[in-house]
Amino acid sequence: MKPIDEPLSSLREADSAFHLRCGRHSLDLSFPRVMGILNVTPDSFSDGGQHIGLDNALRHAERMLAEGASMIDVGGESTRPGASAVSEQEELDRVAPVIEALVRELDALVSVDTSSPAVMREACALGAGMINDVRALEREGALGAAASSGLPVCLMHRLGEPQDMQRAPSYDQPVESAVVAYLAERVAACDAAGLRRHRLLIDPGFGFGKTIEHNLRLLKYMSALQVLELPLLVGMSRKSMIGKVLGRPVEERLSGGLALAAMAVERGANILRVHDVGPTVDAVNMAWAVLQEGCETPLNKEKTS
Ligand code: 8Y4
After folding, report:
1. What percent of the chain is modeled with pLDDT above 90?
2. Number of domains in the chain
3. CA angle 45, 138, 41 (to 5 degrees)
């Protein structure tokens, strides 16, 4: 019998207090953090010419930081199903000026969302602090480029290529087991390439080659990923798992996303990748206060004492 003062189901295990060196920044993951999404694909930012694009991107990033984002994820390749492939040069041209400005003007911790070794190298030279690769360094040359960057890398699970991954995905084992097995294999590949564990984060890759049922189950059993003992990043913001359950278009998915964010924190998420930073910071801090049985998050200590 369990002692009666033990929690019935402590979904989040005792915190292992991860800490990442991200270039000139350091990231304390003893409490959950929010990563703000900054897309720099033409459909999202650039209409009206390059300067307006850059200016809008900077203002948006500044706002997300003011709302409590700990870092900004900059991506120039649309990984949405059906999006056209982008050349390495095109991706660099989109992303480099934005990274440079975020670093110079805002001294922001920038995560670069890319699978391209050339973009990884350039982003690192421009002062990016983290690499976020939805292909988990599987592209030719990516392991080497990421290893020599010295930066932390987020390895994400995905089934298939972004273009065709939503064509009836299926798994021959529980989806969370497939995700853990894949990520363990990528962690080993990184280690063999000289990219050591202390620089890695993992991500179950919500929406990447998963049905709605896979995505819901993956969140329900996300604590299973904690066996890898690596910081956990999750991205569910505005995704179709919310849209399908609630029957909402992309611009009406915030409330659903906040519910998922709170559940993710309970299941061990260390970083939440989101569009709506302010509301998510509140949801995450509220969930965290419950888990801690108190409001002394480092964030509140800064604010109140
Ligand atoms: C509406 C809004 C519908 C956004 C779909 C989407 C992840 C990621 C993406 C993630 C990590 C997306 C770059 C897909 N998702 N990186 N990137 N984890 N680490 N779709 O889940 O946001 S792009």
Report:
1. 80
2. 1
3. 5
Instruction: Give residue-wise pLDDT tens across range 114-153.
Output: 999 999 999 999 999 999 999 999 999 999 999 999 999 9
158 CB near ligand 1 (under 6 Å): no
Closest CA relative to residue 155, chosen from 118, 129, 183? 183
Closest CA to 289 of 268, 273, 269, 266: 266
Whether the CB-CB separation of 291 and 7 falls below 8 Å is answered with no
Query: H helices of 32-114, where?
Result: 50-66, 88-106
Instruction: Name the residue range of residue 141's domain.
Output: 8-293
Please report whether residue 302 resides in a domain.
no
* pTM, entire model: 0.93
Q: Whose CA is nearest to atom 7 of ligand 1?
A: 235
Residue 305 pLDDT: 41
Any idea what the CATH number is for the domain that residue 178 is in? 3.20.20.20
Q: Is residue 219 part of a domain?
A: yes
